[in-house]
């Protein structure tokens, strides 16, 4: 059952210990993380979608994960909804758990984390919990006038895309998020781009920054492959007891396979190969289980 703690901003936060939220992620796994920061409406989501297509990263939007958590009917849903409506920053422990779970479930090892860390508490807590330092931080610099116009025109039916909340979000961005941007600047990790230009022009600048990663784009970062890998991860727990020897055998095989695939095969070949393995496992696993 869940326990109730006080979040650092004095809001009740429910920590559900019954679910594996992925808190031990990444463990020993080598992970590449790029934070994508910028004011509300600066174009973070738009550019992340382009980066995913070209460079094989998995895009994780902290805002999208929080909105999905509200929809899922989670015990923290009402608290998250109220904070988003007020443009406030949700306690780090909630957002970090969601990020860790999404990273673990993706099966990828390269992540664009969009809209996080949004304050000093987010930044320090993420580093403490995951021990991950970002490769660099992409910062989309854009004027408030431009961002306001974009948000008012985006029509995604979001509760917080109204003029009153937009102003509050701008204030939070100036007071809490810009210091984080400054922190990474002082560490030489900031890559700043003029986000006020057209989508294509911004992406030209972004491409330059990500060019060292293009050689690695032909790996398992491909989203279809990630989906299949996610299935492989989940499947044995669904079919049989997760502690069963067949399940452990399957996990070890998958880990080895994943390492080989990441280095040696194109996304298409990887995809076909992984689908074949999944079908084979689905058909033969009950037989294997019978012999273990
Ligand atoms: N460079 C750009 N020029 C004009 N409009 C843009 C640009 N980038 C994004 N948009 C539009 O602005 C809105 C906000 O962009 P979005 O990517 O959702 O921003 P964020 O994720 O930073 O909140 C969307 O409707 C998007 O289509
Ligand atoms: N790290 C984060 C990211 C978002 N959020 C919340 O989610 C809201 C929407 O964030 P978002 O990144 O989806 O959208 P933009 O404000 O960037 O357009 C924020 O205003 C916060 O209330 C948060 O609390 N912590």
Automatic annotation (TrEMBL):
InterPro entries, A to Z: Adenylat/UMP-CMP_kin (IPR000850), Adenylat_kinase_CS (IPR033690), P-loop_NTPase (IPR027417), UMP_CMP_kinase (IPR006266)
Keywords carried by this UniProt record: ATP-binding, Cytoplasm, Kinase, Membrane, Nucleotide-binding, Nucleus, Pyrimidine biosynthesis, Transferase, Transmembrane, Transmembrane helix
Catalysed conversion reaction: UMP + ATP = UDP + ADP; dCMP + ATP = dCDP + ADP; CMP + ATP = CDP + ADP
Cofactor binding note from Swiss-Prot or TrEMBL: Binds 1 Mg(2+) ion per monomer.
Protein residues bound to CMP: 122
SUPFAM superfamilies tied to this protein: P-loop containing nucleoside triphosphate hydrolases
GO molecular function, one term: nucleobase-containing compound kinase activity
A GO CC term attached to the entry: cytoplasm
Cofactor: Mg(2+)
GO biological processes: 'de novo' pyrimidine nucleobase biosynthetic process; nucleoside monophosphate metabolic process; pyrimidine nucleotide biosynthetic process
Assigned EC number: 2.7.4.14
Domain of life, per lineage: Eukaryota
Transmembrane segments: 269-285
Pfam family, one: ADK
Gene3D superfamilies, sorted: P-loop containing nucleotide triphosphate hydrolases
Compartments, as annotated in UniProt: Cytoplasm; Nucleus
Residues that, per the record, bind a ribonucleoside 5'-phosphate: 67, 88-90, 115-118, 158, 169
Function of the protein: Catalyzes the phosphorylation of pyrimidine nucleoside monophosphates at the expense of ATP. Plays an important role in de novo pyrimidine nucleotide biosynthesis. Has preference for UMP and CMP as phosphate acceptors.
Subunit and interaction comment: Monomer.
Domain notes from UniProt: Consists of three domains, a large central CORE domain and two small peripheral domains, NMPbind and LID, which undergo movements during catalysis. The LID domain closes over the site of phosphoryl transfer upon ATP binding. Assembling and dissambling the active center during each catalytic cycle provides an effective means to prevent ATP hydrolysis.
Family: Belongs to the adenylate kinase family. UMP-CMP kinase subfamily.
Name assigned to this protein: UMP-CMP kinase
Annotated organism of origin: Dioscorea zingiberensis
């Amino acid at each position: 059952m869940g326990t109730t703690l006080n979040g650092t901003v004095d809001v009740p936060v429910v920590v559900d210990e019954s679910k594996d939220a992925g808190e031990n992620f990444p463990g020993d796994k080598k992970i590449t993380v790029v934070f994508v920061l910028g004011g509300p409406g600066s174009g973070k989501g738009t550019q992340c979608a382009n980066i995913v297509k070209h460079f094989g990263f998995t895009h994780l939007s902290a805002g999208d994960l929080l909105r999905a958590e509200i929809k899922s009917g989670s015990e923290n849903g009402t608290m998250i909804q109220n904070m988003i409506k007020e443009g406030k920053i949700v306690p780090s422990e909630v957002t970090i758990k969601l990020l860790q779970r999404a990273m673990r479930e993706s099966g990828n090892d390269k992540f664009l984390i969009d809209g996080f860390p949004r304050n000093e508490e987010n930044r320090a807590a993420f580093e403490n919990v995951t021990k991950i330092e970002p490769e660099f931080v992409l910062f989309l610099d854009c004027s408030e006038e431009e961002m306001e116009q974009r948000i008012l025109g985006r029509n995604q039916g979001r509760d917080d895309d109204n003029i009153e909340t937009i102003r509050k979000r701008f204030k939070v961005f100036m007071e809490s998020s810009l210091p984080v941007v400054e922190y990474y600047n002082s560490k030489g990790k900031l890559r700043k781009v003029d986000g006020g230009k057209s989508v294509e022009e911004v992406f030209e600048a972004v491409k330059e920054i990500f060019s060292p990663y293009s050689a690695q784009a032909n790996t398992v970062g491909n989203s279809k492959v990630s989906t299949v890998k996610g299935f492989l991860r989940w499947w044995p727990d669904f079919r049989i007891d997760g502690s069963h020897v067949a399940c452990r055998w399957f996990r070890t095989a998958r880990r080895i396979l994943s390492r080989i695939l990441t280095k040696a095969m194109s996304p298409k070949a990887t995809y076909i190969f992984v689908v074949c393995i999944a079908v084979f496992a689905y058909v033969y696993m009950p037989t294997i289980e019978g012999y273990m």
